[in-house]
Write a structure and sequence with these properties.
The complex is a heterodimer of chains A (about 450) and B (about 180). Chain A is about 65% helix and about 0% strand. By secondary structure, chain A is an all-alpha fold. Chain A starts with about 20 loop residues before the first helix and ends in a 13-residue tail after the last helix. The relative contact order of chain A is 0.18. Chain B is α+β, with helices and mostly antiparallel strands and about 180 residues long. The two termini of chain B are about 15 Å apart. In chain B, about 45% of the residues lie in helices and about 15% in strands. Chain B has helices at about 15-30, 45-50, 55-85, 95-120, 160-170, and strands at about 5-15, 35-40, 145-150, 175-179. Classes of the chains: A mainly alpha (about 450), B alpha+beta (about 180). The interface between A and B is large, with 71 and 71 residues.
Chain lengths: ~450, ~180
């Protein structure tokens, strides 16, 4: 059979999958990681570290529940410390997963196929890590369900004019849709694992998750339709989520926050940090599992280009932020911006400019984009830079807002750092369990792009 | 084995997607109607050869999304205007512009829920047991083999003839499976 009419022909370009791969080798290689006994040493080391950090997270949360938010560095005027910084950082990271799985699908970018599955998993786990922070920040996290509109004996409802309730709807919708998108993508792969598993438990568990998938042509037809519709719905969703997160800041009147540039600049920042995180995970992963013929240098190159482009949008955002502050002739905006440049937090501000604006310029060079070590280094620097960006936005604006008499400085405590480190434990543990027990690359989608798919299969080796 | 009176149909395995496509076209020319094909990955030509063109799914998703959006507005209108009117800085009770983000999120949420559960419902899933699974080689359908099934309720189905046609069309194995 010829290439499906809807799919672009990529033969003239650099291949996005190793040329020796076949439908069978793709099935074997990807499902073997899941179905074999044991895991590589690197997996156990990573799992040990993640589990320890998860323990740190558990202890931090217990401390918080027992002692209250006083264990954190937050106080008036800076009441939004690490909790909100980490929330925005984690949720931004998640956005790359949806961008890869939905937007690149709509643009028919076939290279997304080998990275979309674990990028979606990364989204889910990042959203899980993000979602905990605002709840922990409530002070009485056990009353977190008050955020939702439900009929209650107090006779009250949430104030729907507040961006904080918009955030509740945006984040819960995002988590739900991301979970469904991921699960739907996994159904045919669960069927493959069900049919290949040697153990009774494996057959039962994967069989249950596969929902009885049998690869019927009519099912595939509706499945692809549903997948496309989900992609179409997720695309505006992902843009709306970080827009609404930026509304948490932009709808207020605090100097430095009340800016119309916030939504696009936050969305670009989210994609920027998300792609950096995908690269940070993909580079060690392809090496540890020998997946270089699936996640090729071409993939890393493309991701680096997305980082470069979104990084430039973010740099434009920083420029405009400063320009608006001075052009506004508003003394509070001007003072806040001057203090960012040379005030108590200026070292964080200039470090963020270094990490997010200067270092990513290295990605203009093809050599850097195609050198895994150099790219990994740039990606980690961007991750740090994006965290610093949220730190600067949250802390500088709140600590020096209007009346100098009510200014105050913020510094994190041990428990702030422990909770942040702990959330890496949650993220890492979930990610490593995913890599061990679920196919980290979409098996059925890879089959559609191997050179053999479409052309008749020659050798039969039953 | 005395229950062989009413087979469900036959399952034929084909080595390549093009031989499966050819078999579907020929079987339809021969007058077979109750056909289904099984492949490890989606193949548009096979769906087309089997005559699957339109799906009700997009219409259902549109309806789901509209219900979500109206529901999101209804929730906010009822709580903010009728049940718990709260004057926030003199803003109108029905602050439609401030309600837009929640309306938007509810539209997406209900549209996506309809897409997923609608797809599963129209496909009749979850369905853990299906007669095609009785075929001994069917586990390969999720890996690298291609299958065609013809059900016994097809008026043209008959036991020696239909399997023979499959063999003629290049099937690498043909099995009659029970219900």
């Amino acid at each position: 059979m010829e290439q499906s009419p809807g799919r672009p022909v990529l033969t003239a370009r650099e291949p996005i999958v190793g040329e020796s791969e076949t439908v069978r080798s793709v099935t074997d290689k990807i499902s073997r990681v899941v179905l074999q006994n044991g895991a590589p040493r690197g997996w156990w080391i990573g799992f040990g570290i993640s589990l320890s950090l998860l323990g740190v997270f558990a202890v931090s949360i217990v401390m918080l529940l027992v002692e209250g938010t006083g264990i954190w560095g937050i106080n008036v005027p800076v009441a939004w410390g690490f909790a909100i910084i980490n929330f925005v950082w984690w949720i931004g990271i998640g956005h790359a997963g949806t961008l890869i799985s939905a937007i690149l699908l709509l643009f028919r970018q076939e290279w997304r196929t080998s990275i979309n599955r674990f990028a979606e998993a990364m989204t889910l786990f990042a959203v899980a890590s993000a979602g905990l922070y605002p709840i922990l920040h409530l002070g009485r996290p056990w009353l977190g369900y008050w955020l939702f509109p439900y009929p209650n004996t107090m006779g009250m409802w949430p104030n729907f004019r507040s961006p904080l309730i918009w955030d509740v709807f945006a984040v819960t919708t995002y988590a739900t849709v991301s979970l469904m998108f991921w699960f739907v993508g996994l159904i045919p792969d669960f069927a493959t694992l069900r049919d290949r598993s040697q153990s009774v438990a494996g057959r039962k568990i994967y069989g249950t998750l596969a929902l009885g998938w049998r690869g019927s042509a009519e099912h595939w037809h509706r499945y692809e339709m549903a997948y496309l519709l989900l992609a179409g719905l997720s695309t505006p969703l992902v843009v709306s989520v970080h827009t609404i997160v930026s509304f948490d800041f932009a709808i207020s009147v605090v100097p430095g926050w009340h800016a119309t540039i916030f939504p696009p600049y936050f969305v670009a920042g989210a994609v920027f940090s998300g792609f950096a995180m995908v690269a940070t995970i993909a580079i060690p992963l392809r090496r540890a599992y020998g997946l270089q013929s699936f996640i090729t240098i071409k993939h890393l190159d493309n991701m680096a280009k997305v980082m470069l482009a979104t990084g430039l949008v973010v740099a434009y955002g920083y420029m405009m932020e400063a320009f608006f502050a001075f052009y506004s002739a508003n003394i509070f905006e001007e003072t806040m911006m001057k203090l960012r440049f040379e005030g108590p937090y200026s070292s964080s501000y200039w470090a963020l400019i270094l990490c997010n604006v200067l270092v990513p310029q290295a990605l203009w060079f093809r050599k850097v984009r195609r050198d895994t070590r150099a790219l990994l280094f740039v990606a980690i620097v961007i991750n740090i830079g994006m965290w610093l960006e949220r730190y600067v936005i949250v802390v500088t604006s709140l600590s020096n807002d209007f009346l100098p008499s009510s200014w105050g400085l913020y510094s994190p405590t041990f428990w702030d750092l422990a909770t942040y480190a702990g959330s890496f434990g949650l993220f890492g543990t979930l990610l490593l369990l995913f890599i061990r027990f679920l196919p980290m690359i979409s098996i059925f989608e890879m089959k559609t792009i191997v050179p053999e798919a479409g052309t008749a299969k020659e050798s039969e080796d039953e | 084995m005395s229950k062989r009176i009413s087979p469900w149909g036959l399952v034929a395995e084909f080595p390549t997607s093009s031989s499966l496509l050819h078999a579907i076209e020929r079987s339809r020319e021969e007058g077979y109607e109750v056909l289904d094909a099984f492949s490890p990955y989606p193949i548009e030509e096979i769906s087309e050869a089997l005559g699957h063109h339109h799906s009700r799914l997009p219409a259902l998703v549109l309806i789901g999304a509209i219900i979500g959006g109206l529901g999101g507005f209804g929730l906010q209108y009822w709580t903010s205007v009728i049940d718990y009117p709260l004057n926030v800085g003199g803003r109108p009770l029905n602050s439609i512009i401030a309600f837009l983000p929640v309306i938007f999120e509810c539209t997406i949420l209900f549209g996506a829920l309809t897409a997923v559960f609608g797809m599963l419902a129209l496909n009749g899933l979850p369905r853990p047991h299906h007669p095609v699974f009785n075929s001994s080689r069917f586990a390969l359908a999720s890996q690298d083999a291609f299958f065609l099934s013809i059900e016994a309720r097809d008026p043209k189905f008959s036991v020696p003839d239909t399997p023979e046609l499959m063999n003629e069309l290049g099937a690498s194995s043909v099995e009659v499976v029970d219900d």
